[in-house]
Design brief:
Order of helices and strands: EHEEEHEE
Strand content: 25-35%
Oligomer: single chain
Radius of gyration: 12 Å
Structural class: alpha+beta
Distance between the termini: 32 Å
Largest sheet: 4 strands, antiparallel
Amino acid sequence: MTSWPFSDPPNVAVITSKKIIEGTDWIQRVSHDADDGAWQFHPLGGTTEDDAKVVGLKTILIIDPSIALLADLPLGWCAMRTTANSVWKREKLA
């Protein structure tokens, strides 16, 4: 990566799962919330409150560089994939 792909800074806080941080699961769903602009990165099956972690966006990009493909995900949209190597599918949040 030659330049930072997101409009948010590398240290912006994002919500994810302990399983993703520990490398025991992969990112299946990404959302860019319309109400507050927050980014969320979740494994298959979602994230429980006990499993939730807050980290910097740069940490997520290091864990999964394919997230750079979602840097232009609009507010109020999400992206999902069926496997860790699948193409991201985007859709507007209901």
